[in-house]
Structure prediction request, 207 residues.
Amino acid sequence: MTDKTSIGVNPPTPPVTGVANGGNKGTKVDLQTSYLALISGLLAYYQPGDGFLLAAGALSRDELIASFQRYVASAETTKASNQVWRADVQKERAAELAVRPLRAGLKSILEGRFGKSGTELVKFGFTPAKASVKTAAVKTAAAVKAEATRKARGTRGSVQKKKVTGDVTGVVITPVTAEGGASTGNGGAPAASASPAATGGTLPPHA
Prediction:
């Protein structure tokens, strides 16, 4: 193995965009950066034919560098694909926003034709509304509440009103005459004037 001083002119170092952590557990950029730094070190301190005995077998410097470069290139391809995917997602969202009101309007038209709970809506991709079903307990509670309300308010139904017959008694009506006086109820004749005794006066002497 040779050191940097015995190599002469070093090969160009690949660009390094960041510093990776020791465990290479950072972001993808950090991981790429760590392999770029490793390639740079191999190029700077080792000759192309220098070999390394690893668990995978004996590999030369250039073989190792080629493997590392494949990973970096693959990561770059993934990032490019991801950017394209993100752009496609934005296009998809814009397209969905454009057709959403159209779908909502069509749903209203179909509900007007088949009803909100019509099973035909399923054929158009819509979920019918569930029809409200009142249980026996709910109906009984409503009837009891209505009866209690009628008793509290003293209201009567149409059948109960028909059972009330006959004249109303116990009420005295006193009509008012044209002159403003009260009617006597004897054919319209004016009532006799009150006697002096009734008014607290004295009788005139007899002739």
